[in-house]
Amino acid sequence: MTAPDFVYLDNNATTRPYPEVVEALARHFRDSFGNPGSRHAAGRRARQALELARESIANILGATPKEVIFTSGGTESTNLAIFGFAGRNSQPGAMALTAGEHPATMEACRWLERAGWRRHTLEVDADGLLKTGQYERLPWDDLKLVTVILAHNETGVLQDVQPLARMCGEHGVPFHLDAVQAVGKIPVHFHELGVTSLALGAHKFHGPRGIGALLLREGVELAPYLFGGHQEAGRRPGTEPVALAVGMARALEIWNADHEDRTRRVRELRDRLEAALLATCAPAVVNGARERRLPNTLNIAFPGLDGEALLVALDLEGVACSLGSTCASGSAEPAPALVAMGKPADVYRSSVRFSVGQEGTAEEIDEAASRIARVVGRLRAAR
Known about the structure:
By secondary structure, the chain is of the alpha/beta class. It is 39% helix and 14% strand. It has a seven-stranded mixed beta sheet with strand order 2-8-7-6-5-3-4, sandwiched between helices. It has a three-stranded antiparallel beta sheet with strand order 9-10-12. Helix 4 links the parallel strand 3 (94-98) and strand 4 (118-122). Helix 2 runs parallel beside helix 7 and helix 8 runs parallel beside helix 12. Residues 325-330 have low confidence and may be disordered.
């Protein structure tokens, strides 16, 4: 078998849309082109397609259709929640967020800090898991917003958010969950999680870019963040992108139809890559809880090497990966999640993220492992 020219292991950055999704997009760009707010046949056709997509997404994610707000993606969904909850208050208060958060959350909270809000950091341990016993110390009388990342984009670490969700519910504090990396990779049930809102983005699970959703518990109000028309029940103005919404629903349906098998296959590929690299690239360090992480994600350090140089060399060798959040690419700062976990400099400066896709094969993984080992050996020999 001929070796592939290019092995794509950056699926946490974005995924290739399924062929069925591309077909659905083309069909609805052609047939559902009407404005879903228009009161004629073309508008009604578009509205029907939009609402069917909303119902499908709600059913898979354990929500009601009224709780699904279509957005442009995960970043907008998180911003909509954070600023929407904050804007309900006449005076700044306290907010709590996970250490090493995604830039969509961190930058929004930094803006609130400049407006007088007080930030409390939820600390993580060396495995990236939220430390126990810290929730009781939060300033619950002053706390007006909590936001946590369910599956970390850099390490894949999965958090148990239900204990914190229960405390937020007892104190009447809105709890936003960034589930952008989780949805379409592991089962996510909005109502069972007990959170107030949840962000997702289609391009993380083989759907189209430019579409996402915010799940918002029924009866909860958000202060206006964008201004315009009355789309999405007045919560997110702008003409709805019908074809993109249908594409997102189709991608989620494909995953949901056999998600147990898909999860098993992806985990096997991830573990195959991990075992190969630990065997051929020692010393190597896996970052994050080994048993509580996304089935597709491997964040691994090669102490003594420079992550940037490694990234460039791997690209030239035909292996696509990343140093962490693509939303923070270009930054000279070390990965915040690894710093929050207390990793030493020689680990966080030499870490790269490999994220397997649902289209991957064992042959591709073996070829990637061989190329990575070759690059690591070459760079170490050149030191």
